[in-house]
Amino acid sequence: MKIRSVMTALALVTGALFAPGFGVLTTTVDAHAVTKISHATATSMLNASGITWSSSGNCSDRNDPTCTSFEQLNLATAQGAQTLKSASACALNITGGTETGHASGTYSHWNGYKLDFAKAKCLATYIQNNFTYIGLRGDRAPQWQSGAGNVYADEGNHWDVTFYNCGGC
After folding, report:
1. Inside any domain, residue 167
2. Which structural domain, as residue segments, surrounds residue 129?
3. Is the pTM of this model over 0.70?
4. Measured by CB atoms within 10 angstroms of the end CB, which terminus of the chain is less buried, N or C?
5. Which residues contact 143 (CB under 8 A, 6 or more apart)?
6. Contact at 8 Å (CB) between 95 and 66?
7. Are residues 2 and 60 in the same domain?
8. Is 6 exposed, middle or buried (CB count within 10 Å of its CB: 0-12, 13-18, 19+)?
9. In total, how many domains does the chain have?
10. Do 15 and 61 share a domain, yes or no?
11. How far is it, in rounded angstroms, from Cα 102 to Cα 19?
């Protein structure tokens, strides 16, 4: 075998391994860039879908735990709420967004992946009848997973939803 052929093959394989979004050396972060949106953009999207929101402090300050803020919400999370609304045909009221005061972590409220929804019979029925029960979370909250991979946890007085994607938007 010619040395030139070996070098060419090696160069092609090395190039494939280091290509953006391809190969074994990339991470899921490379392939899944997250688009953040403002509170105003989120409220406009939610309004357009007939989704309401409320806060115990009647405010939207991201740094106040009594508020419900959508500042720095992931676009896919807002779209996921819209998908849930249209698929379930339920009245949805968001009681928690990106404000401080929730548990930390990569897929957290603060990082724009989670929304809390007020409990309602329509929503509970839709989740339990259409998604797969996947067991109890570490805090003993029962969880269901949608076909798209989003996770719905029943925290007793509200639904804690992790939107990894827009749910088929």
Report:
1. no
2. 34-162
3. yes
4. N
5. 133, 134, 135, 136, 137, 151, 152, 153, 154
6. no
7. no
8. exposed
9. 2
10. no
11. 37
Report the DSSP pairing between strands 52-53 and 93-96. parallel
Same domain membership, residue 140 and residue 64: yes
pLDDT by position in tens, the chain (length 169): 455 444 444 444 344 343 443 333 333 444 468 999 999 999 999 999 999 999 999 999 999 999 999 999 999 999 999 999 999 999 999 999 999 999 999 999 999 999 999 999 999 999 999 999 999 999 999 999 999 999 999 999 999 999 999 998 8
Six-digit token string for 46:
């939610």
Asked whether residue 13 falls in the same domain as residue 93, the answer is: no
Output the DSSP codes for the chain: --HHHHHHHHHHHHHHHHSTT-STT--HHHH----EE-HHHHHHHHHHTT-EE--TTS---TT-TTS---TTEEHHHHHHHHHHHHHH----EEEE-S-TTS--STTSTTTT-EEEEE--HHHHHHHHHHSEEEEE-TTS-EEEE-TTS-EEEE-SSEEEEE-SS-S--
44 shares a domain with 12: no
Alpha-carbon distance of 101 to 78, in angstroms, equals: 20
Do both 129 and 51 map to the same domain? Answer: yes
Residue 92 lies in a domain: yes
- The residues that bridge with 114 in the sheet, in sequence order, are 162
